[in-house]
Specification:
By secondary structure, the chain is of the alpha/beta class. The protein folds into two domains: 8-94 and 195-285, Periplasmic binding protein-like II (D-Maltodextrin-Binding Protein, domain 2, 3-Layer(aba) Sandwich), CATH 3.40.190; 95-192, D-Maltodextrin-Binding Protein, domain 2, CATH 3.40.190. It is 36% helix and 17% strand. It has eleven helices and eleven strands. It has helices at 16-26, 44-51, 78-81, 126-134, 150-156, 184-192, 209-228, 230-238, 250-260, 263-266, 270-285, and strands at 8-12, 37-41, 70-74, 85-87, 93-95, 101-104, 117-120, 139-142, 162-165, 179-183, 196-204. The strands form two sheets. Strands 1, 2, 3, 4, 5 and 11 form a six-stranded mixed sheet that branches. Helix 1 (16-26) links the parallel strand 1 (8-12) and strand 2 (37-41).
Length: 299
């Protein structure tokens, strides 16, 4: 008698776009094709560490060599995990003329970030990779994304001179009287003429080609379901405890999902795929990445 296949370990963030695309699986709303799933949610830096093979406190358990089967990671960390993971052709967060923003308490030019202390969400994030292309002399100060308000408190307390905001924070800084220094997606569009790939989903190569193909189809269907039932999904996300009341505001969720849970999430568009390669090429040319890692897309 054959043993049942172990559940597929999913790891993704608590942010609205990740919660949106995995909700149908979590709530049992679609046919999973015989797959069962476990769900683990952590911040972006922790997810990147999982993909890098590191153990994370409170993270997925099981085989010590397997941290998770499908992980939502920063696009910029993919070259370092490509030996173990393929890129999925869906699940992406893409900024089309917008992206993470650097903000400060006073008006500031990006050139003034040289030598400035910048609060960042993690050294492995795409946002930090792109900021180093803009201003390589910025000094990073890692500040966890959770609790949500911590980055704003660090800025107000003078612990940092500027703050690099990802996720919902980019929609809220004006409410706090902060000034935009640079929008990374705007800068990238001007520099490369392309959208900015920020987050990607990856799948473990060790699952094998047949399971990867079948699982990819199920994951795509979860995203399609969310897009087809968008209003219902927003209501479900608004009912979650998101750590701060404002993050559960349906109006904010709608604005945020317009940015990062859309057609680009359902299918990684050709220009966004091209942009991923261009980003890695420019990062290598700047000495920020090593090795020529080909982009390897799962079905």
């Amino acid at each position: 008698m054959s043993r049942p296949e172990p559940p597929i370990a999913l790891a993704y963030s608590a942010d609205a776009d990740d919660a949106f695309m995995f909700h149908a699986l979590r709530a049992g709303l679609i046919d999973t094709g015989g797959f069962s799933f476990t769900h683990w949610r952590g911040d972006t830096a922790a997810l990147n560490r999982l993909a890098l093979g590191e153990r994370v406190a409170g993270g997925p358990q099981g085989d010590p060599d397997v941290t998770a089967d499908v992980i939502a990671i920063s696009a910029g960390v993919y070259p370092r995990v490509a030996a173990r993971y393929q890129l999925l052709p869906h699940g992406a967060s893409v900024g089309r003329g917008f992206g993470p923003v650097v903000v400060a308490e006073r008006p500031m030019d990006p050139a003034a970030l040289a030598g400035a202390r910048v609060g960042i969400p993690g050294l492995t994030t795409t946002a930090w990779l792109v900021l180093r292309l803009i201003q390589p002399a910025a000094v990073p100060i890692e500040i966890p994304i959770v609790p949500f308000a911590r980055i704003f408190e660090a800025l107000e307390a003078g612990e940092v001179d500027a703050a690099l905001l990802i996720h919902e924070g980019r929609l809220l800084y004006r409410d706090r009287g902060l000034h935009k220094v640079v929008d990374l997606g705007e800068w990238w569009l001007g520099a490369a003429g392309l959208p900015l790939p920020l987050g990607v989903n990856v799948i473990r190569r060790g699952l094998g080609a047949d399971r990867i193909r079948a699982l990819s189809a199920v994951l795509r269907e979860s995203i399609r379901f969310a897009l087809d039932h968008r209003s219902d999904l927003i209501a479900a996300l608004a009912a979650e405890d998101r750590g701060e009341k404002r993050l559960s505001d349906p109006v904010l969720l709608d604005r945020y999902l317009n940015l990062y849970a859309n057609a680009d999430t359902l299918s990684f568009a050709p220009d966004a795929r091209d942009a991923t390669g261009v980003l890695f090429d420019r990062a290598r040319a700047a000495g920020l990445l090593t090795g020529d890692v080909p982009l390897d897309w799962a079905p």
